[in-house]
Inverse folding.
């Protein structure tokens, strides 16, 4: 029941995505209508996903988290898409903002597809862990793209905060190795959820610390490079766990 509702609402959201992209080249009214429609649809989708997660029961909280994370990814992608649409409104086809819009739309569709795959996998206990890992790998890749962009963080933090956040990576690494050894679905799902948060927190703290006023350009470049290398190394580890 929930799966059918999620599928139907997700399809409507994909149609809204198309309207948003085409709306950038049309009137402000059409763009506003498309944005309002997509906002309504994502609210409906979030509700049916939450009901689906609740139906799993409280004895499987990690899988519930996987589902909630999937809808959060879709909501974030929609927010970015609406922002990109506003930026591209009334611009010529070869304007850089149009390429950003196409990129945002691609991420949006990727995340909706990921949500649907996750919903399907939840019904099959044998594939839950695999799907959770695949979704986490995709999420980390998207976070890395944001990290590597030229966008300056809204706030800065101290180098100590960045160091503190690397402890989460250490814990997640130990968990990933243990999951690779046990191959138990619940261990793999827990690893996926922990990895997702640990890497995202590390990337955020690293970028904020690298733009601290006391940090030189040379140190910033090194910090950003090491943040990228750490993430790529962790992705490689998750790929190995997935293979196992």
């Amino acid at each position: 029941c929930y799966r059918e509702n999620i599928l139907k609402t997700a399809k409507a959201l994909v149609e809204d995505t198309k309207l948003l992209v085409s709306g950038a080249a049309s009137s402000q009214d059409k763009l506003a209508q498309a944005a309002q429609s997509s906002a309504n649809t994502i609210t409906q989708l979030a509700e049916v996903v939450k009901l689906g997660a609740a139906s799993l029961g409280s004895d499987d909280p990690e899988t519930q988290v996987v589902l909630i994370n999937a809808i959060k990814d879709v909501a974030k992608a929609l927010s970015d898409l609406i922002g990109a649409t506003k930026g591209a409104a009334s611009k010529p086809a070869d304007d850089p903002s149009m390429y950003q819009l196409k990129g945002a739309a691609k991420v949006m569709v990727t995340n909706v597809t990921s949500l649907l795959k996750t919903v399907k996998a939840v019904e099959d206990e044998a594939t839950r862990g695999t799907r959770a890992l695949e979704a986490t790998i995709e999420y980390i890749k998207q976070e890395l793209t944001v990290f590597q962009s030229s966008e300056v963080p809204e706030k800065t933090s101290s180098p100590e905060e960045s160091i503190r956040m690397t402890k989460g990576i250490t814990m997640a690494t130990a968990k990933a190795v243990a999951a690779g050894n046990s191959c138990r679905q619940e261990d793999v799902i827990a690893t996926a959820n922990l990895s997702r948060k640990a890497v995202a927190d590390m990337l955020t703290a690293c970028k904020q610390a690298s733009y601290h006023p006391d940090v030189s350009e040379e140190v910033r470049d090194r910090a950003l490079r090491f943040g990228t290398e750490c993430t790529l190394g962790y992705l490689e580890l998750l790929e190995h766990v997935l293979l196992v």
The CA atoms of residues 56 and 64 lie 7 Å apart. The chain has eight helices and no strands. Residues 150-242 form one domain. The radius of gyration is 19 Å.
